[in-house]
Design brief:
Strand content: under 5%
Mean pLDDT: 92
Order of helices and strands: HHHHHHHHH
Bound molecules: protoporphyrin IX containing FE
Distance between the termini: 14 Å
Length: 171
Amino acid sequence: MQAFAEWIATTGLSRSLAGTGWAVPTLQTIHILAISVLFSAVVMIDLRILGWTGKGQTIGQTLKRFAPWFWGAIVVLACTGALMIVTEPVRELMALSFWIKMVLLAGGIAIAISLHRHVRGNALLYDGEETSPATVRKWAWAVLAVWVAIIFMGRFIAYDPQIWGAWSPIN
Ligand code: HEM
């Protein structure tokens, strides 16, 4: 992985992005804005599934309303994240926090898809009930925990050696 990361650093795109003072802070800012959109969508959907807010809309309507923001933010996060990797490949690809985050991200997206499919496949739940069955509420809490963990890991990337010590490949 180290050799691959060092190879990326020799590419023209990496050199030109790394050579500008504004690329990384601008990409990180757009990344943070997209995190706020994604996390707001996750919280709004979860609070409706838990029956705590948004009872003026069915769960189906809430999903229809916030799912496009969720998936749109994922696209922006993937693009800005990929460009940040190209700009600082060793810092990112050699960070243990980065790989934990990517595994959590795959899990978070898989849970989101299966939760949406489950709700969609259950018309009664989808268009009627005020609160969801306990299993669905448990899923809603799991989703929230996964996205909070992803945010922590995103921030930990910058402090990988300090946080993971000898486990950090950067050491
Ligand atoms: C979709 C794929 C994603 C990729 C490839 C990606 C990649 C990255 C990279 C390379 C960084 C820069 C780390 C650094 O150098 O300090 C970063 C920062 C971060 N990411 Fe992501 N990310 C993705 C999605 C997400 C998601 C879904 C979240 C949270 C919901 C997230 C939360 C964060 C946070 C909190 C930071 C630290 C921002 C900062 O302090 O400036 N990322 N991400």
